[in-house]
Design brief:
The chain is built from 9 helices and 53 strands. By secondary structure, the protein is mostly beta strands. The chain folds into 2 domains: 84 residues, Immunoglobulin-like (Sandwich); 685 residues, Maltoporin, Chain A. It has a 22-stranded antiparallel barrel. A 5-stranded mixed β-sheet has the order 9-14-15-12-13.
Length: 963
Amino acid sequence: MKLILLPKSYLFTIFLLTAICLPSFAQTILRGHVTDSKTGETLIGAAVHLENGAATINTSVKLDGTYTFNNMAAGNYKLHVTYVGYKTTKEYDVDVPADKATVLNIAMIDNTTAINEVAVIEYVSKATDYSARNTEKVSNNTMNVVSAQSIAISPDVLVSNVLGRVSGISIDRSNTGDAQHVIIRGMDKQYNTTLINGIKIPSPDNKNRYVPLDIFPAGLVDRIEVFKTLTPDMEGDASGGVVNLVMKTAPDRLKVDGEFGTGYSQIFFDRPLASFDHSTVNSKSPGEINPGGIATANDFPYQNLVTKTANATPNLNASLTIGNRYLNGKLGVLFSGSYQDLYQGANSFAVIQTNTVGPPVGSAQQNEETAFQSSYNRQYSTQLQRLGTIASIDYKFNSNNTVQLFASYLQLNQYRVRQTQDNTYGGYTYQGYRGTFQVDNLTETRTDKQDIYNITLNGKHKILKPLSLDWTIASSQATHKMPDDAEFDTQYSTADDPSTTTSANTSNPQEPTVSVAHNITTGPTYVQNESRVWSHNTDKDISAYLNLHYNARLFGRDITFSAGGMFRHKTRDNYNNSYSLPNTIVDGLPETYTTIPNARFLFIGADTVNAKGSSAHDPGVYTFTENIQGAYGMFKYYITDRLDVVAGVRTEHTYQTYLSQLPVTFPGKTATIDYTDYLPSINIKYALTNEQALRASYYISILRPAFADLIPFPDQTADEYYQHIGSPYLQHTVIDNYDLRYEFFPRVFDEFMAGGFYKHLVNPIETELQQASGGANLYLTPNNFGNATNYGLELEAKKYFGNIGASINYTYTKSQITTAKSIVLDNQVTHIDQTRPLQGQAANIGNASLLYKDQKNGIDAQLSLSYIGERIEAVSNYYGLDTWERPSTFLDFSAQKKLGKHFIVYAKANNLLNTPYELVIKQNNTYNYSGIAKYPHQESAAYTTVQYDQYYARYNLGVKYNF
């Protein structure tokens, strides 16, 4: 039997057609909707009983909000409906004619008293799909909402992975393969902000403001809100969008639920997991233990560099939520916790650019930039321990006064072994590939600890009938620690055996002949210098918010005036201390390698620079202070019953100052930056019907530079290939934003949205790969690149057909920026303009899901496909040499089955296609891809592959409980 594999583009097309093109045909049926008489909410699962004499037929309300009886005999029937918490309906007489569809819609009345109704409405769950659709419908902003109900049945266990399925959002991934940051509407991750319950939180990232979203377990949230337009009461530094994580709050009655699961990564079926004893890691560097002292080799224990391999143990995933209300519903209390212990891995190939040259004059020639000197083959083995806890207490004094105290703590610890084979290429070919000159084998062990805590006290008060206010005081802190990032290096030389080497012609005019080795010789293995790095940073926020609201009438119509302000005091400290331990020289040669414990290192004589570490002059050591003051005024006016407008202006004052460890004589050792922005906005909504609306908006937003982007000195963090150099002269970005969207919510779970957006950026900030003066290695530096535009189209549709549903979204984005690029022509460096997309922007992104839900048998299933088109990962200073990320397609699956009233078993599978992460340079790759002197791991003659990572599939099984 011959197996035919279809291209991914065909697979995606077939998937979409299957989701949409479902059969329909005429028959004798009885159907209708069952809803709540007060709210109009569809009562999914309500039991519908139909009688005809002694015969009884039962069905239930499906996901599309309808009940249906098919293939009926014509006649008179008796019908009634039952639903938990609602009064059984009266018995309806229904005449069903032959070959026609009879429709009977029913509204049910709940059993609660008036007092209980108030309590239920006040504390109604925000975790349902119905609540999510209603939030989108009534919002002042253009937004998307993902409910906890949708998250629970999805294949995802992290907030970051969930967001990758939202319309207009693409993701980037960490070296574990998990989604880490979001790119909203083609705006790079730096243009987006993250909130917890509406409060901005600091980031543990050592250089940037954006928050790594893989720190959040999905089980802690009630819903995820993605705001794509801003109103004046929102902070203005979110040009792409705002991700607001609305955490669980106290329910209206006792709630106890949880989860216990396990899983495994496909990669560890094929190779073992490498690990180390992280309990032996020194939490502080020698320079912190003994400030100003001279370190010795004995201050760097070897135990944490000794690794072992074994089969990975199964993953663990557990959570528990307990909540209730007391004192007649006035006091609400909730605690929720989540813990994950996971083992993940990756296999990676990467080549390192050591110089940058422009394309050659002759198009038939190979670009010299792709003639790399070395490459890395790496295996990652990572243990992740993820802990998330939240606690909430709220008290309702009376109908006019409510206060809430909320606290959260999030922690992500990674214990990683990275094993690298660094190949430095020589001047011959061996077994059809370029041979090596030397090979380094490096073992890196890393302990990486991130945490975020937040405590928020807020209140809502109605002072007079038309006047109300709300306030918030918040304290937040994010920390990131990497104690003793250690790397041990051994090296041996390789060469072709002259007695077996021959010459052969190639099709490369730059290499008319090449040495073909039939055998190679290998030298002894020597110990090289050892690297040890300690780094940590802390980001602290103290914030206060106040909002006043006044309800009035203007020209006989309702109007609400709002005004308020906020203040945030941010302090950030950053520490970095690196050591290079010199290897021992024996008879003019490095020490021969035997084992890691036997290797000896020694700081020789007056070598106090290495022995003291880098902290005294390291640009990674700095303190940063930022004060943000914001004030706004706005109104919401109902011009007609269908037309309302939200408009106003916001002002934000930014004050920044930093002090680095640069020499006193170095420009930019310290700086003070001060500016004020005025940010008008208007959001207009016109309701075409009760289910359809048009939205239009305009607003101005900003982007503040990242902290490290302002410090002008080389800083290379572990895991980065290139040094980073900032600039204190970097300008903040100002963006004009326009948005238009049509919304249609035909039923409780069905929706259709179509919209467009346009953004004009003044002084956008992008990180560019440049060559240091004198022909030294490359480095990354942020720059303002003039002006840019970004515009696009979003489509989103969700439809249920009985038990089967289909969900599809697609976003087309086009951005343009024109910059001067260097190019070498006739051995002279000149500049020409090149127009390209913005960094991180993919022209095409889309998601499609097939959903199955059988409420009678308690079965849910979901097959999800995600696509992200190509995008620029790194901008080059030279023409045509930007680094691009190749398109990617991900396929995931999940299913769950309800057992009895309290238990659900589930299965989840991710990355079933083993989609790689691939970076390329779009240059002629003929000589690297084929022939007798090709480079390994090259995928095409049309582009050069500079990185290729594989994560493989992951599987999870578990049980959920609810009492």
